Each structure stands twice: as C-alpha cells, then as structure tokens.
Amino acid sequence: MQEPINALDGGAGAVAEQLNKRFGRYSIIVGFLLIILGSVGMVLPGLMSLETSIFIASLFLVGGIFWLSHSFKYSLRNWGDWLKPVLLLVTGGFMLFYPLSGIAAVGLLLAVYLLLDAFGSFSLASSLRPARGWGWMMFNGILSLLLAMLFLIGWPATSMFLVGLYVAISLFFDGVVLVYIGWAQRHAAS
C-alpha cells in the first residue's frame, strides 16, 4: 500500500523524493511505449478495435473460468450460481468467434457511457454555475454528447473505426502524461 504524499512530513524535498519513487525512469519508458501503441492505433483504428474486442472477450472467458471453478467447488446444486459463469463464457465466446459483433457491442457501450458522462457533466456544470470553471464542465458535456452521437449515428458500422480510435487516443495521452510526469520528476530530483 502506498503512503499518501504529505508536504508537511519533510517539505518539498521529501515530496519530490516520494514522487520520484512512484514515477521513476520506468514511467518514461512505459509512457513512450503507450505513445507508440496509441500512434499505431490512430493509424490503424480497425486493428485497435479488433484487439480491444479480443481483449475484452479474453477477460470474459478468464472471468467465466474462475467463476465456473468457484461454482463447481462451492455451489454444485444451486443453478443460480452457475448463471454468471455461463453468461461470461458464452458472451466471451461469441465476442471471440464473432469479433465484428463484439466491436459493435463495445461501440454501443461506449456510446451509452458517453451519454451518461455528458448528462453528468451538464448536471455538474449547472450546479457549479456561476463559479469559475463551470463553462469547462459544460464544454466537456458537449464534447461527450457529440462523441456519443458519432457512435450512435452510424452504429454499428462506425464502431469498427471509432472504438479503435477512442482507445488509441486514450493510450496516446496516457503515455504523454506519464512521460511528462516522469521527465518532470527526473529533473526535479537533479
């Protein structure tokens, strides 16, 4: 378990040292790898969509196997305890054997998530108004709503392109942030 960073414990030097332990040189390496992966995904969004669908299907299958072994060991007679592992295995299997349908399902889930994010942002913006920053939250809501509409207007055909692009952009910016934090901490330590 990591300890929280507390500036009162030893001043700025201690804070920089703790940050260096968390964001060492590996943050820069991992950041560059994420930037490369995100860049490839932006150039080949269909491939990134396919990989995303296969990854999610694999997680469902592994989770289904774990639940199946748990149900087999502890709940042989209760059919309700067998429902979840069977659903995980069937869903994962369908996504693995029919990856285009899996990509369409992931696209629909992303659209629902973005719609919920947009309405949450609108709600937060209206509760923050007239305080500073409420406009940025409204802007975030508008962007999320536009992205959701992009997913829904051409669904399921646009899912092949948009799921991969969405994941690739996320990986790219995660990498940029990790490189920046790692670089800043490295220079703060010297």
Tell me the series of helices and strands, N- to C-terminal.
Answer: HHHHHHH
Query: What is the number of helical segments per DSSP (H or I, 4+ residues)?
Result: 7
Roughly what fraction of the amino acids lie in strands? under 5%
Helix content: over 70%
Main traits of this protein?
mainly alpha, 0% strand, 190 residues, 7 helices, single chain
Structure description:
The chain is built from 7 helices and no strands. By secondary structure, it is mainly α. It has a domain of 117 residues. α3 runs antiparallel to α4. The longest helix has 31 residues. The chain starts with 10 loop residues before the first helix and ends with a helix.
How would the blueprint of this fold be written?
Layout: H1 11-22, H2 25-43, H3 45-74, H4 80-97, H5 99-128, H6 134-153, H7 159-189
Helix pairs in contact: 1-7, 2-3, 2-7, 3-4, 3-5, 3-7, 4-5, 5-6, 5-7
